[in-house]
Design brief:
Structural class: alpha/beta
Distance between the termini: 45 Å
Order of helices and strands: EHEHEHEHEHEEHEHHHHHHEHEEHE
Number of helices: 14
CATH superfamily of the largest domain: NAD(P)-binding Rossmann-like Domain
Helix content: 40-55%
Number of strands: 12
Pathway: Amino-acid biosynthesis; L-tyrosine biosynthesis; (4-hydroxyphenyl)pyruvate from prephenate (NAD(+) route): step 1/1
GO molecular function: NAD+ binding; prephenate dehydrogenase (NAD+) activity; prephenate dehydrogenase (NADP+) activity
CATH architecture of the largest domain: 3-Layer(aba) Sandwich
Pfam families: PDH_C, PDH_N
Domain Prephenate/arogenate dehydrogenase: 3-293
GO biological process, one term: tyrosine biosynthetic process
Strand content: 15-25%
Shape: globular
Length: 367
């Protein structure tokens, strides 16, 4: 039976979600809310949604499923608003927030006793691009789509959401809201603090040591890439998960102090163990299997500085979907090759390695 889906927030996540739903459920009607006319216009023009509004409450009573793809504070405000609307009985309400406890607590406060179902969610996918204009039907492919059930999640709700999102080609997983926030504080939230702190420290240092700007590449570039993330979103994330994040900051201070003591004492064995343990722990992690935030698979090729060499490689990869191409110039002391090509899945990565290795004598490294 055809359903009516209401997506509130037609940014990159919401618009890409609409495309994924339409891929497997072309008969579903998709309604969209967005404050700005620009994203509404793009979503309508490109057929992502069937109807649009800038009045959130107007479409809510029509929906079988309501998905809030909005900043955390606005998501909570809309949950409060939904409590006073005449919604369809049994309507499913979900969200896409990067922290879950505050949102789940808000729903259990405002929607308790209402004939609605709620299931928190966090699609761990994204891009440096924003807005409906950047929507990508494959944005969620192979990425984790995390569900955090609550007391308002009735039996069958999760299965209905998985069916709705089958066209996203994501990997669905279920976890407690509080545990979600603990895990993401370590592997997502705290790294953003670290990247921005490192960037701030380097910018100040470079005022007296100008060459620091010129030599910054390789590992520094990879460690600080996420410092370019949208500040409003990250302010909201930190403030909605503050206790857990403060715990991670305190823990990290202790670890920095420990390695500082080892350096001060000249303890060669401790320093060696520090680096070796980190290397072994990283090699053992799921990082190399991907499927989380900003998933990509990187291939490095040592190519000579010759005319048309990059065009030749790209010609070999015709028909393969690329995420990014980067030429590593100047400082390459911790980079595996001059040409870095990123892919979205392991199959494309392996295919590219095979084609390049079979048709050239260049050194190819997968990381």
């Amino acid at each position: 039976m055809a359903k009516t889906i209401y997506i509130a927030g037609l940014g990159l996540i919401g618009a890409s979600m609409a495309l994924g739903i339409k891929r497997d459920h072309p008969d579903y009607e998709i309604l969209g809310y967005n404050r700005s006319q620009a994203s509404r216009g793009i979503a309508l023009e490109r057929g992502m949604i069937d109807r649009a509004t800038d009045d959130f409450a107007s479409f809510a009573p029509l929906a079988d499923v309501i998905i809030l793809t909005l900043p955390i504070k606005q998501t909570i405000a809309f949950i409060k608003e939904l409590a006073d609307l005449d919604l369809k009985e049994g309507v499913i309400i979900s969200d896409a927030g990067s922290t879950k406890s505050a949102i789940v607590e808000a729903t259990e406060q405002y929607l308790a006793g209402k004939p609605v179902r709620f299931i928190g969610a966090h699609p761990m996918a994204g891009s440096h691009k924003t807005g409906a204009a950047s929507a990508d039907v494959n944005l969620f492919e192979n990425a984790y789509y995390i569900f955090t059930p609550s007391s308002l999640t009735s039996p069958g709700t999760l299965e209905e959401m998985k069916d709705l999102f089958s066209g996203l080609h994501a990997r669905f997983i279920e976890i407690d809201a509080k545990e979600h926030d603990r895990v993401t504080s370590q592997i997502s939230h705290f790294p953003h603090i670290l990247a921005s702190s490192l960037m701030e420290q380097t910018a100040v240092y470079a005022q007296e040591h100008e060459m620091a700007r010129r030599f910054a590449a390789g590992g520094f570039r990879d460690m600080t890439r996420i410092a370019e993330s949208e500040p409003g979103m990250w302010t909201s994330i930190l403030l909605s998960n503050r206790e857990t994040i403060l715990d991670r900051i305190a823990d990290f201070k202790e670890r920095l102090e420990a390695i500082g003591q080892s350096i001060s004492k000249g303890d060669e064995e401790q320093i060696w163990n520090f680096f070796n343990q980190a290397r072994e722990q990283r090699q053992a992690m799921e990082i190399h299997k991907r499927g989380g935030v900003d998933s990509s698979y990187d291939l490095y090729v040592d190519v000579p500085d010759e005319e048309d060499v990059i065009l030749r490689i790209l010609e070999l990869l015709r028909g393969t979907s690329l995420v990014n191409i980067h030429i590593n110039e100047e400082n390459r002391e911790d980079v595996h090759g001059i040409l870095q090509i990123s892919f979205k899945n392991a199959q494309d990565l392996e295919r590219a390695e095979r084609f390049i290795s079979e048709n050239t004598d260049y050194t190819v490294v997968i990381k």
